[in-house]
Design the sequence.
């Protein structure tokens, strides 16, 4: 799977701030690889025999696929706030790769549960059979639950405690890894919990569920998406920004605004793609929204107005970065990701 | 519902260390009330209108019922390691009530998912219709997911960050509450994640699933239960012990041993009750294990040997407390809870 800023299926040509394509493309390739490698290291590669069944379903759900947009946002935001080498930089990088893996685990678990028969009842995801089709519903349910817990485990590290941890079959304790300050660990856990809980992703999914076959105002639609997909996207940006303690409040606020606009833009483009692309390109069933009679930005405002709205949101995201006080070159990846979100073809 | 050490249905008379019954009974009543009040405060009492549907299912699942054994273990262990008043005591108490609520949320979510048609397909829990019967499967799934996230949110607190949190619809920010040190917050998150993830509760459930209709050695059975129920029970004890930073390693190790033995004892008694009590007493369907052809301590060793094994485990738990170096009077509640686990009738 390539994720370069290639000719999209339906180009939105929103080149408001066009980062150097080659530079961003290199960044993207390197950081996708870092995320994949981290997930392979973290998602229980040496599980004991009696946990293999569960772990296989988890690995199937999270490894080897996906845009990794959430993880990339963590890494890009972390790099925007800290460029230093040395212990400070190493600790922030360790926090960021753990956070990137954690948000990908949360996203992947939400897809596993969302695809189940009692929810969207979907059979195709990332071009493969969905987890419950492959492993059965009970195992899909448990794998999702376990992935959520593992996400929070990743965000924390042993702190030389007396806890007998050596026989623990979860994430291996890597004593050589830099230690993330506990205040950062705790904050990352809080941000992830808020982004994925009742006032975040799970809440948005519940609102979605309540409105199948019903009409929604654009305000209600926006609120639903701010929770359902926006919270974790914005949360990913904030988690990246909080990988270092002591970042200035106005920087955090600017990055929050970037994350908010980008999260909404992502959903608007998602709705456009669902209405205009085919299943093979998307790697999941296209046209689901209309078939399920779900309100979307396309059904509410039409395709053209939705495209324009997405471009506006990208401009808003980029303006937030420009006003953040962060050096422009450190925001290269954040600009590139905003561009990618708008111009993606799946 | 009374939870005093009343005449059990099938008395196990294991009075190895019998705490003062009246003193423990008072402690129990007070602390059950504290947990109920905390859960009412934490489980999103002021959710916005569009989240009411989800939040009602969460509240239905966790409020007003249950033995609260896990929450009580947190509070009892915290009190065993710190008796001081003052800021240190207040912070440890705040950590403990949050941890007690968090473990109850995790336990409750696991029951919601476990009762679903694709898992145990049960319709009765705590004497009421199960969550999916009452609210539908999709909402039950989401409510469980949201409860897990909320558990981790409870374990963390705002730390005067610039994060715009005031519009957050989750746990209200209580600026008057004592601040738990970040190192404690991070440790509690780690312990809870480990206890409930692939190498804990979720892993145990997966092993259980793999062995329906198959025979198991006693060793395999024990390993399954150590994960499925033991990990969260032991985790609750450890979380209580870690509510204060700097507790001596040998104290932690002793409490871990207590938690390990108590966790296993709980499961052995569970198997005995499933085989010998009726549904009305249990508040859930009795005789499920045999009907589902599941291996249990009763099917493996018979009722009498299982009773004796439970008593041995209680003795082991009490011996660990005696060797912990903690003053006997501070372990009153832990002794009482071990006694309760063995002599419970549901």
Sequence:
């Amino acid at each position: 799977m390539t994720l370069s800023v290639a000719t999209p299926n339906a180009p939105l040509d929103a080149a408001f701030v066009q980062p150097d394509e080659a530079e961003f493309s290199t960044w993207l390739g390197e950081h996708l690889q870092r995320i994949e490698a981290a997930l392979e290291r973290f998602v229980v590669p040496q599980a004991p025999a009696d946990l293999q069944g569960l772990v296989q379903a988890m690995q199937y759900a999270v490894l080897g696929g996906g845009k990794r947009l959430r993880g990339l946002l963590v890494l890009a935001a972390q790099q925007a706030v800290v460029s230093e080498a040395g212990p400070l930089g190493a600790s922030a990088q360790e926090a960021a790769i753990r956070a990137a893996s954690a948000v990908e685990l949360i996203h992947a678990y939400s897809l596993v549960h969302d695809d189940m028969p009692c929810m969207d009842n979907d059979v195709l995801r990332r071009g493969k059979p969905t987890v419950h089709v492959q492993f059965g519903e009970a195992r899909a349910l448990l794998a999702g639950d376990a992935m959520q817990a593992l996400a929070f485990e990743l965000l924390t590290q042993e702190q030389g405690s007396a806890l007998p941890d050596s026989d623990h079959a979860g994430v291996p304790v890597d004593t050589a890894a830099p230690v993330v300050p506990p205040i950062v660990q705790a904050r990352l856990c809080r941000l992830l919990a808020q982004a994925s809980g009742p006032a975040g992703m799970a809440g948005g999914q519940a609102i979605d569920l309540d409105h199948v076959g019903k009409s929604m105002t654009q305000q209600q639609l926006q609120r639903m998406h701010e929770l359902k997909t926006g919270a974790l996207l914005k949360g990913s940006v904030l988690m990246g920004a909080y990988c270092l303690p002591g970042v200035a409040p106005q920087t955090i606020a600017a990055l929050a605004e970037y994350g908010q606009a980008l999260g909404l833009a992502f959903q608007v483009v998602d709705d456009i793609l669902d209405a205009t692309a085919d299943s093979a390109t998307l790697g999941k069933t296209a046209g689901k929204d209309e078939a399920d009679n779900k309100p979307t930005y396309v059904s509410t405002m039409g395709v053209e107005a939705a495209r324009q709205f997405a471009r506006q949101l990208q401009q808003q995201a980029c303006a937030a970065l420009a006003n953040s006080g962060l050096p422009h070159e450190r925001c290269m990846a954040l600009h590139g990701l905003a561009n990618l979100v708008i111009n993606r073809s799946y």
Q: What stands out?
A: Chain A touches chain B through 76 residues (CB under 8 Å). Residues 86-114 of chain A form the longest helix (29 residues).
